[in-house]
């Protein structure tokens, strides 16, 4: 750990991050109801919080991996991942009549805005861009995975207020927290390897509204897709830099 780094920005970022789901589930929804408008407001608050924290935490937008080259790299790697799983599933369908659904019957613009921008981009700007960007300053480069794990725990716990408010049982809550942790360990690994925030967003978006339903409906294809993205992140190899 580097004692020269002030810890206040990280603490502030964590407080702001956790204030959002608590306020959302225990004030916004009980007061104004749960619906498209309040859901969008809650999601937008994550996006705004992430953008503000980038500005006040000493991070630089240029160091987040949101440039055009990063976007092109993410498109290429993401397209390769989708092409691979669709090709494999299509071959299995042809050979064994497995009935895998390769593509959606239709694609909704609202679903892309909701899941790719207001959810995936907003959450990963906050967790990968801000929290990981700050946490990694306190670990040696050789222990970067410790920052990945710590932010993964924060990402899982960040969902806990919602699970408690909905009333999930202990088993269901534990299972969902474990899934959140496992998901962000993949997202964090992609970012640690590549420094490409667009690629992290693509990975997250695939779990909510993937271009192919294979990612979410067929676990083995979902794992294959994520493995390709992680491999692509290692191939692109632009480690996230401490600013």
Feature tags:
mainly alpha; 243 residues; disordered C terminus
Written overview of the protein:
76% of the residues lie in helices and 0% in strands. It has 243 residues and is mainly α. Residues 239-243 have low confidence and may be disordered. The two termini are 16 Å apart. It contains ten helices and no strands. It has one domain. It has helices at 8-32, 36-56, 68-96, 109-135, 144-158, 160-166, 170-194, 197-209, 214-217, 219-236.
Radius of gyration: 18 Å
Category by helix and strand content? mainly alpha
User: Percent range for helical residues?
Assistant: over 70%
Number of DSSP strand runs: 0
Q: N-to-C terminal Cα separation, in Å? A: 16 Å
Order of helices and strands: HHHHHHHHHH
Q: Which term fits the overall shape? A: globular
* Sequence stretches where pLDDT stays below 50 over 5 or more residues: 239-243
Summed over residues and divided by their number, the pLDDT gives a mean of 94
In DSSP terms (H or I, runs of 4 or more residues), the helix count works out at 10
What is the makeup of the main sheet?
none
Beta-strand content estimate: under 5%
Number of domains: 1
């Amino acid at each position: 750990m580097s004692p020269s780094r002030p810890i206040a920005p990280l603490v502030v970022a964590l407080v702001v991050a956790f204030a959002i789901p608590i306020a959302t589930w225990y004030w916004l929804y009980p007061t104004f109801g749960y619906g498209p408008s309040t859901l969008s407001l809650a999601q937008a608050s994550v996006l705004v919080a992430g953008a503000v924290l980038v500005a006040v935490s000493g991070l630089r937008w240029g160091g987040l991996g949101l440039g055009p080259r990063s976007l092109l790299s993410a498109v290429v790697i993401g397209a390769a991942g989708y092409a691979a799983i669709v090709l494999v599933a299509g071959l299995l369908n042809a050979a064994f009549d497995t009935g895998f659904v390769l593509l959606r019957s239709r694609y909704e613009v609202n679903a892309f805005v909701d899941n790719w921008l207001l959810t995936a981009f907003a959450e990963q700007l906050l967790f990968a861009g801000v929290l990981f960007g700050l946490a990694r300053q306190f670990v040696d480069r050789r222990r970067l995975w410790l920052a990945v794990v710590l932010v993964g725990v924060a990402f899982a716990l960040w969902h806990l207020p919602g699970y408690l408010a909905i009333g999930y049982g202990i088993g269901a809550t534990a299972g969902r927290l474990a899934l959140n942790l496992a998901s962000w360990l993949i997202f964090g690994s992609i970012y640690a390897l590549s420094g490409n925030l667009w690629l992290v967003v693509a990975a997250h978006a695939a779990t909510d509204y993937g271009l192919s339903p294979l990612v979410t409906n067929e676990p083995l294809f979902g794992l294959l897709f994520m493995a390709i993205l992680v491999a692509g992140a290692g191939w692109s190899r632009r480690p996230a830099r401490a600013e």
